[in-house]
Amino acid sequence: MKSKMKIRDLNLWYGDFQGLKNINMDIYENQIIAFIGPSGSGKSTYIKTLNRMNDLVEDARVEGTIKLDGEDIYSSKTDVNVLRKRVGMVFQHPNPFRKSIYDNIAYGPRTHGITDKNKLDEIVENSLKSAAIWDEVKDYLNRSALSISGGQQQRICIARALAVEPEVLLMDEPTSALDPISTSKIEELVTSLKEEYTIAMVTHNMQQASRVSDRTAFFLSGELIETDDTIKIFTNPAKEDTENYISGRFG
Question: Does pTM surpass 0.90?
Answer without folding.
Answer: yes
